[in-house]
Give the backbone structure.
Amino acid sequence: MTDCSSHVPVLEVTDLVRHYRLPRESLFAKPGHVYALNGVTFQIQRGKSFGIVGESGCGKSTLARNVMALEETDSGSVKILGQEVVGLSFDQLRPLRQHFQMIFQDPYGSLDPHHTVGRIVAEPLAALGAISNAERDRRVAEVLESVGLKTRDVTKYPHEFSGGQRQRIAIARALITHPELIVADEPVSALDVSVQAQVLNLLKDLQVQYGVTYMFISHDLAVVEYLCDEVAVMYLGEIVEKGLTENLFTNPAHPYTRILLDAVPKPGSGKRRERIKLKGNVTGQTERRVGCSFQDRCPMVQDLCRSEKPPLKEVGPDHLAACHFSDKVSAAG
Amino acid sequence: MSDVQSTSFLSRCRRSRSFVVGGLLTGFLLLCAFVSLFWTPGSAYDIIITNRFLPPSSLHWLGTDQFGRDIVSMLMTGTQNSIVVAVVAVSIGLSIGVSLGLLASARRGWTEELIMRFSDFSFAFPAILSAIMLTAIIGPGGVNSILAIGLYNIPVFARLTRGSANAIWAREFVMAARAAGKGRFRITFEHILPNILSIIIVQATILFAIAILAEAALSYLGLGTQPPEPSWGRMLNEAQTLMFLDPMQAIYPGLAIATAVFGLNLLGDGLRDILDPRLSRKR
């Protein structure tokens, strides 16, 4: 971890695959699978925010758990600061974990109600190993202050705080080891809209202060647009489009991205492009299809899409999309 | 605990009527047992045939039995016996059962299967029947009845612990602890156990009542406490032949058992109201 050269990506995910086995329906039936991740590849550079959007069930949280090495990965590689984490044992991972921490979605569920704030925030330090009480208290006070809480809050319990404040506690816990990477799994979606903005601004400020890199998972496009430098759109366990936030939001090259963007109401803007609406629901992740994963819901589906899987190909500078007809999608905008 | 929490905890204790009544009854029981260690109004052991079947008087508050022993003294000394049996039996079940349940929940896989199938297996035998079987094999007596009741308690605690621990393992704060790098053993003691402790305490209180009942049943059958040690169950047994001669002989120990079980069940219910986080969060 001494290699701090800036060209090594903080996070490098290559061809990550995760399939869950379902319980057998009967003794002699073949067990089914949920194809949660089907080969996901991306990189995040130091100090950047990388957003991952998609509807529920598209594998966002599975991706977060696999990056955090919280479950077994089927195949592929996850490198954090150039260090491979897939295949390491839990004990081998422990010293590495100070470099990557996580913020969870539900601030009511992610804090143990029986622990004081001080103990919750210090948890990653306690897990790392021996540290003097004075040093621990100093660092707890430091992070509590940087997330806007008071030092005297350490003796309080989570139930004495509001949702927004609880999420600040969770952020403090993720920050205490001064990690390079923070994986944030829908960190604001459980909060009131007014509080969301405060927490998002806090995350931005902390990025400046600590130089931390975010992998930011959300289903809310506005939140991602506000916070992230780069965005990947996921559908059924695959990245279907990836690019710099500005390019992707102004010039979507995949019909799914286009539909998601069209679904966001834009008050005030006089010009509105012709909206494409999404039909149907997410088709199950329990079967593997020939061809494009989006074929059942795509408004511009062709025969080619049903027979051949579109590769993730370059459609512009730093802009990738997995669609046979991406030029048409862009042109229609 | 902060001041805010402890005051609301106390006020919730006072508001729960079943906790107050159950606590008073249980306290009375403990007091009887404690006092009988030093002093009883008469003698629970001395057989004085000339004093048999005395009516209640200032000397013998509830009269005497067929051997002339003082009934109040026997009831009080019997309390000791019931409490000791229940405490030891519940402790056996608690320590082994909770450990097994936590282990099953932390390890999952075949460890969990093995422990749960074992407890399913022991559940297939009715409690009293298996206690009778055990005492029949290893012989009657106070210690053996404690062992039999304790063994029966193990799967009860194991199942309860495993079930509630699994629910805690699925919570996000446990995943946060994993993400921090804490091992399963450490999470079990720092996160799982504190969060299920209240459920275990409630269950222990209720099993305490069942253990008292089971001890009385075993002693009644002659498999538990042996003479001359006074025991509620044996008093019932001895009074049985005198049912029409002196029915009060059977009613007193019966009332004692009923009071103890009633009090402990109320206490358990009250504790559940006070400690259960799902109920207390609604306030």
